[in-house]
Structure formats: C-alpha cells, structure tokens
Write a structure and sequence with these properties.
By secondary structure, the chain is α+β, with helices and mostly antiparallel strands. The protein has a domain at about 1-35 and about 70-130: Alpha-Beta Plaits. It has helices spanning about 10-15, 20-25, 40-50, 60-65, 80-90, 100-105, 120-130, and strands at about 1-10, 30-40, 70-75, 115. It has a four-stranded antiparallel β-sheet with strand order 2-3-1-4, with helices on both faces. It is globular, with a radius of gyration of 14 Å.
C-alpha cells in the first residue's frame, strides 16, 4: 500500500466543499489514515512550500495557503499517489479533465481546491510535516 498527502485548500474549506471532496476520495477506494483541520501560519506555509521558494508564485502561494483553514489527509491505497493526482486533475482547472476535483470546483491555477504529493519522497516529507506517528490510524 502506498501513502500520499492530500490538502483541501482554504478556498474549498471556505466554500463548504470539504465534505464532497472527502466523499469523492472515499468513493475512489482510498483509505483515510489521518485527517485534521488546521490553519497554517505564514512561516509554516513557507516551510511546507520551500521547494518553490525561487518561483515567482511563492509569495502568493504562501499568502493564500495561510489565509484560512485547510484540511490535511493521509490517504492510503494501491498506487495512491498516481490515483490521487488523477482525481485532482491538472493544476490549472481550465486544463483539468472532466470529473476531476479541480475541474469541478477549482476557480483558477492558485485556488484549485486541493494539493497532492507528486512522488514517494515528497509524500514521505509532506506526511511527516503534518502527522506524527500517534496521529495515524492503523
């Protein structure tokens, strides 16, 4: 079984989409091993997205991700990273496939409702950023 991190971003939480997004996650046979709501500080957002520090969108991304509560989830399943990325859709909702979360609910390339790890190493780092060992369901 593979694990990945999912984040329901501030725009989706604010718009009341969290329940529907979680329903679609479970409908795709992911097992939720960890789940919590939190409000990232600006510093936490900067540490989480430090891989993008040199990119022109870094400041805007960190401001946005610390603008309101998010829901973080540890998802588990066969090919979880690949399958979660398929369910999310392309980063730009305008380019996302029909039926994906970003196509259904995304407003723009930044406010695109969800985040997901892009590979096993990233997933391990991102999961440990948000979850301690005692917070995860067996």
């Amino acid at each position: 079984m593979e694990r990945t991190l999912a984040i329901i971003k501030p725009d989706a939480v604010k718009r009341g989409l969290s329940g529907e997004i979680l329903r679609q996650i479970e409908a795709k046979s992911f097992t939720v091993r960890g789940l919590k709501m939190l409000h990232l500080t600006r510093g936490q957002a900067e540490r989480f997205y430090e891989v993008h520090k040199a990119r022109p969108f870094f400041d805007s991304l960190c401001r946005y991700m610390s603008s309101g509560p998010v829901i973080v989830a540890l998802l588990e399943g066969e090919r979880a990273i690949e399958r979660w990325r398929e369910l999310m859709g392309a980063t730009d909702p305008a380019k996302a496939a029909a039926g994906t979360l970003r196509k259904q609910f995304g407003a723009n390339i930044e406010q695109n409702v969800v985040h997901g790890s892009d590979g096993p190493e990233t997933a391990a780092r991102e999961i440990s950023f948000f979850f301690g060992e005692l917070e995860l369901a067996d």
